[in-house]
Amino acid sequence: MNKLKVILSLLFIACITLLAACGSTEEEESGGTNEEVNEGTNESSASDEVWEEIKEAGEIVVGTSGTLIAASYYDDDDNLTGYDVEIMREVANRLGLDISFEIMGIDSMLPAINSGRIDVAANDIEITDKRKEEFNFSEPYKYSYTTMAVRKEDNSGIESLEDLEGKKAGGGATTIYSQIAEHYGAEIVTYGNAANEAYLRDVDNGRTDVVVNDYFLTKFGVGAFPDFDIHLHPTLKFHPTEQGVIMPKGADQLTEEINKALNEMREDGTLTDLANQFYEEDASQKPEGEIEEIEGLEL
Description:
The protein is about 45% helix and about 20% strand. It has about 300 residues and is of the alpha/beta class.
């Protein structure tokens, strides 16, 4: 009887050893320990945390500037509106959510997403490869290109991108447009969350020479101040752009939900209607014509 117990004990130990060896082999083949696998699972579920928190709150918090004519601005009755603002209101409605807006400068929006102060930002924000390394983006809801506001009398002495060298360009410290101007040798004059009038008035009075910006925003900004001696540059069209909603990196479920709403809006014509309402052109479609690409600049 004692011999039988000894044999059974030895067999049990052998089985435990074999199972441990198999488990170790499986971990090596799968590329990690159970702890590492669990970490991967946690990372996957973390990607849904932003969406789950938004659903639980029943509200999405959107960062925007309120200072970009046609995109995000206050109308004559002091109501926040604009293409980006109304797109986000419609997205929230289709997702069954309330919406609130946090007004802030463009330089504050990306840190506010990372800190959790806001859920997303919508402020004519360009989708770039560099930004996609740190944030999630929706599908584009606007297509455009870059141009300049310059003085009417002489185009501020700018007939090519190379002529930006030595000029003073008004803009936000971290915008793509300031990066482009700086790339060509312009001195950047930075502003806080200033309205279009401040940027454009400074071109008019000579404090700065140029504002490099989105075609649609520049067109409506210039049109809003007919007394200023400025106009849209007549020949320069460069750096084609796509704009979208920007979200925390890894917020994949939120990205999917917003994309679903945007795709519905594209299919049923809502994006086109809003674009025509605010831009008098269909900015939801890619622009036609030749647009110069900028080489050697990581944006």
